[in-house]
Amino acid sequence: MACTLVSAAISALLNAGGTESAAPSIPSQVTRKKPITKEVTEPHDSFEQIDHLILSANYSKATQLCEKRFESASLGDRQRARYRLGLCQEATGDFQRAANTYSNLAAHADSRLCLLARFGQVRCLIGLGDFPNALTLAATLQLQVDDPSIFGMSLYGELLHCVGLIRYLQATEKTPEAPAFSTACILQAEAKTPIAHFLEWEQLAVELLGNESPPLEDGPMLVYRDESDIRKSSVTLQRRAITAAQLLADLADACDLSLEIGPEEKRRLTGISIRSAFAGLTLSEVLSSLSMQCGLVWNIHAQRLEIIGRPAEAPTVQSRERSECCEAMECALDAAPEHPFAPFASAAIACLLFQQGRYAEAARQFELVLAQSPDEQLSRITEYNLALTCMSLGARSKAREYLLNVVDRNNKDELAGMAWWQIARSHLDADEAGKAISALKHAATNASFRVQAAACLGLAEAHLLLGMPGTADSMLQRPARSILRDDEFRTDAAFLGALTRFRMIQRKQQSSDESEDLLWSLLVPSSNSILGPAGTLLRAQAFVELGMESEMARFLEDSLSEQRGPVATRLIVMLVQHYQRVGKWKVAG
Asked: pTM value?
């Protein structure tokens, strides 16, 4: 099934400026301090003036005033200015400089802005593509979400959504970026910073805490066991410093679990110091955070807490990363369902389910995104993805309904052209080449050169199936020759061109040159073909026309497991008839 989940840039977090729905959770007894929006002229470099410039997206001027504030004699003022400078750099995409700015601020462990700066580092590391370090730092912060310096801020929900985003990017970064017409499925995420949101956090910290960072007092570990599922036991701990090994030992002891750690893992855990300030986290959440920090894997089985190294085998890694991504996204949605990242998280889960071939579950998840997402573009992309999922389930009529909705919302962009192409693909897969032509003509008028090229290949394919090689040849002359030489189209264009020329001269006289061209085109691997089951049928027919039925049989034996629908039935008939002709009755049966 030639189905693709469109590769689309989606705003995973709010655009700069934020919205009310993204505001942090603040205790009811605290009056929210609204961001300063009125212009203040005296003094000209006051924080009110800087905040006004930041909220107006005048980052250049705000940066100048922040740098001037560094001349202040007050350490607290210099730290406030540095935090704002980091926000300005982050908002303009200068993630490396922003990370350095936040790192400088986070180095002051006694600063009340330390944890906010470290969360800024997490966001910048994501922007830089440094996912392992971003994940480690986010996991560290997860165990400090109840630190007194960030009282009243919903940092835990923010961190969970960041972890979900990191897990998704990790699960997909090793997959080649999918051409729009291949069978791969990648949904790209573009994280943007809600600057107003994080600026308000700093303003709230000043209002509630002043310039002093409340001390973190050591306290006992409190565990409220859940006898039905020990993983759901509630854990509370405040500790300025404790080794990861000791924390695991205390957790295991409090939950009556035997602890099994290999010598190498134990050495690693002993060398990691943990600052802890959390209340009411589940045992599962605490263990997951520790595992992310230490690069290990945990498991509870038969009253044993096992800590092991992460397996390095590639298939295991890919499967594990997808599983971890789904778990992280689901945790984030449970903890902060109203977060602006939530629609993307739901869509990402659906994409991963599609990648795993779990089409029925993916369809339900995409339907959930459609029902909940207010974003027009995400809804449109989701309808496209849902259509492709329906095609994978064989529900072609339903798929066409979703694809027509995509076109109705906007009939001019590349997604509209791809929707027309997929409508045609659904007809070709159903052995209805004649019905595919109208949709392919719509796709051929799209502004995207890639869609035009794919449409012309589809038109050539359809006319070859209808026994019209002359018309197929004219279709292949339409797109610029250069685009048909791109990796995305080259193999299919070469095969269709060779088959077209072969069939055009076949009625007149046999041409060894054309036969040789066709044979060579058949020998090129077609794993990335955009032609779908109908393309497989044409290749099988080409082998027969060259008098190579044995090669046709071997080709179909390798290809049929991936084929579904009416065209697949024709392919099975071709293969069975071949076996009957050569006397392989048992195989034919």
From this structure: 0.73
